[in-house]
Fold these 3 entries.
Entry 1:
Amino acid sequence: MGISNTFRSSTKNEKDVKRLLKALQKERNPEVRQKIAEALGNLRDRRAVELLIAALKDDNRHVRVVSIIALGNIQDRKAVNPLIEALKDEYAYCREGAVISLGKIKDEKAVEPLIQLLKDRDSYVREKAVWALKETATSAVYPLIDALKNEDKRIRAGVARVLGIIRDERAVTPLIEALKDDHEDVREAAAQALGNMRSEKAVEPLIWALEDETSYVRKMAVVSLGEIKNTRVLEPLVLALKDDSEEVREAAARAVGETRDVRALDPLVLAFKDENSTVRKMAARALGNIEDKRVVELLIQALKDKDSSIREGSAQALGNIKDERVVEPLIQALKDETSNVRKMAAISLGKIKDTRGMEPLIHALENEWIQQDAAIIIQEGEYDKLMEPLIHALENEWIQQDMARALAQIKDEYETELLVQTLRDRERNIQKIAAQALRNLRKFDTMGYPRTLFLGQIQDVEYENRKVRRIADETLAKMRVTSP
């Protein structure tokens, strides 16, 4: 076997390893050295570690990157110190690769150097440093807590973020202290971390953070209080609905709605009149989460708001409340000039499952912007009187995929034939959907349907479309017949 064939080998062979080790020492072509290093990393043979460590000083940066990655694949602790040194490489890809490899090896010696990488000038290196520190969480918690007092604000903020991902209870008190940091980025990261940890100890400190001078710190405190979901958070979140910052008010409306507490009804009705449309939209959704029928008329009126985002939020909210009064207004909303409003109206009608909404949804299938939602909704409705329009809709080339999915759920003898016919469609994706739909049917052995029809039609599916053929074969297997 030549050296080029050895590159492609992923199984360890004694001769291959020796050939590659020898070649890495003598080869002058950097492209070949790069391939050799990659092959050695794939083979994961520890005899390659020393040579790969030496390759970290190669003049060619691509050779260095591949050697770094190879050492990460082998995961020998002898490579830890050289990889830590590689964190100083001037080439960002080398630093990023070294971070990844150290994250795989998980040696505690790498924790402090990785913490320093949280201030790297390259954002990808910083992101990978966060990941690597998470991977070494067992030995990283205390060094990370100590680093919350680092003189560099970037490190303090990055450390807070990592601690929020690790979610170790020992970090709660230090993160609460970080809410008082001199820099707003650190305070924001600390607030986010405490929300991720969902610690009851953090509730009061986060309530204090609602008074922070920086709006995005206040917003993160709102978001985190919403994550913790303690009974004490409702009142401060309601007060945040009156914050000077529209972003804080928006986050507060979302968080208040997620409490589903009926006491928030009146404050949300007031927020529904906010000067900012995004806040009003979020307030509408929040009202829907509370599911109180006292706001139905208000939300129905909002379906005529000049702002499409308000109409969309109101349509969504009405679907959650599920009052019979909302059906006709939502049917009218299927004709809205904005696609997102039409889509949300279709989804809400599907949630309500009122038979008055079924025929309008069938007609909505002609609108390519909401066809998928309408088709999925129809799957869960009453079908007996609607088979004819459903079948007609299948002839529309824009919606064949969605109708195939819908018909697969109806499980009627007549529509099964339609799905088989659809296998003949020239479009590969439609063939696949139809075959998948047939595979989902569960009545082959009991409905007495003529199996020869399936055999005849599946023969017409083009052989080069292997995925469709495979699905069709699985379908036939369920029917206890053999594919032609």
Entry 2:
Amino acid sequence: MNVDLDLIDLVVNAGVQEVTLMPYNNNLKFVGNVDPEILRDTMERRTDNLKIVGNVDPEILRDKLESKIKKKVYLTRENKLHEVFLSFRGKDTRASFTSHLYAALQNAGITVFRDDDSLQRGDQISTSLLRTIELTQISVIVFSSNYSDSKWCLDELVRIMKCRRTIGQVVLPIFYGVDPSEIRHQTGEFGKAFQNLLNRIRISNEVDDLMNLVPLWIEALREVAGLAGFVVLNSR
């Protein structure tokens, strides 16, 4: 089975620093640019896992490889930009819990990316922020009563949960003043905030969001609510 040159070019030119190919009983490791002939010969054998280390889009590369070699490919990301990605609703916890958590992590020598939805312009999450999520080892999500009122926060959540499924990112939910069951079923104050967002979407006639995004939000909320996390009482 041959690998087309455009696939080889994708691997070589995508900023890959290290490629580890693991066929049946042999490990082949390439540092720097990949030798096309070696890569082609390797792909002719059965490859169960492909590990890419470097600045490369895992989804594009995985889809390309799967389409070419006609078998399942599993990718993991390394060389992370940050150890922790912190997702939270700014108006709820910026000056309280999240601020203290951020400071504690930094004081412990942990690199943290803190995203404050209230500082963003518009509702569309940026490509660079999505990439930042992918390049982070652990995502910590601080759920609060108004988290579900933000399209930005919910889009972050969807990407975080996708990274958990596809590249094994560790996800730690913190339930600040809300119960996990409220997240799972969108009830209580959390559910009211979610309904407020849906009402705004309906009023603005954003039909595509209702049809495409809302099901993804609900699925992600149900999934994350089942993960082990911490429940923190809101002392305000």
Entry 3:
Amino acid sequence: MAVTINGTTGIETNTDTGKIKVGASDDLVIERKTDDHSYINNSSGRLRIQGDDIRIEKADGSEFMAKFTADGSAELYHDDVKTFETISEGARVQGNEGASAVLELWADQGDDNADKWRLVSDQSSNYFYLQNYAAGSFETSIRALGNGNVELYFDNSLKFKTDSAGVQVYGAVIVDDGSATGNRISVGGAGDLKIYHESDNSYISNDTGHLIINSSATTNVDIMKAGHSEYMARFIPDGAVQLYYNNINVFSTTGAGIACGEIRSQTTYNATTSNSANMYIHSDPYVIYRSTSSIKYKDNVTTLTDADADKILNCRPVTYTSKCDIDDSNEIHYGLIAEEVKDVDSRLVVFEGTEPENVKYDRFVPHLINLVKRLTDEVDTLKTEKTKLQTDLTALTARVAALEAA
């Protein structure tokens, strides 16, 4: 092999496999091998390439592959496009004009899909992505927008998102069993509102102010059985508050008061009084009223006629047993039959529509007073007549006795 030193072209060898050796022990070797590759081999010490502006270029000098600038950046290129460079704060990865910037991180030599992750600065949406390759294609784990939202994903499905008002959750928020001071959801500067599950019970605890539940003007607030299968209470805007028993509405507020089924109160039952009853339940619309006898509630007051009072003597007193579920079916009751009383005087009967339902027993009292007064007058008359007869009899007895004595 011949070596030629040419002042124009430099050092030349005349074969394809020539070497240039430098150093006493051939420590630096520059060679061209038969595999059509060129090599620089340093066998001892360091191989230093020094310069203020070092560039690695394509063979014809038309493209950069790397650039190294003294006191500045180190740049790496892909197809003559800079994709990586060092900066004073660290490093920068950048995409081509009109393309995204991607940095892939592979663990364990990337021999499993789950080893592969990448960071993406997306050119079209301006979003930043953290993505994984576990499913065999890249899926999003985190997505963020400058001056905008941050999103968290599970298996490529959005689950959590920040926005200008706070956060949005897509799915469930799961908190382990806790307490008022343990695992919980806390709201307020001092954690005034707490939501937590402890042992077998769930709690909503408010420490300050009022606990207020709001809804829109057209949306109900419902309290339901687990599984949403039954109502327990409903709160209707501009309408009723409804309470339920076994999914049946048994109590409702109305514009006039309340509407309900049975009313049971052991406390009321035990609070006894000697006053007379003064409550009345109307047959339609089943409203409870307080009865009153004051003149201030009365008009067109007239004295009860004897003819009206005499009518009640046509009523038939009866004994009977009750068919009502709440009554003892063997107990003997005393009373009147509403249908019969209606034929005597319909004013003494409460109607359910057009059908007689109840007898107004209290309305019999004024008639009985009328009858008793009239009977009392007759008794007084009879007493007067009896006294006169006794006086006449005494005088007559005296005269008879006088005649007999003569």
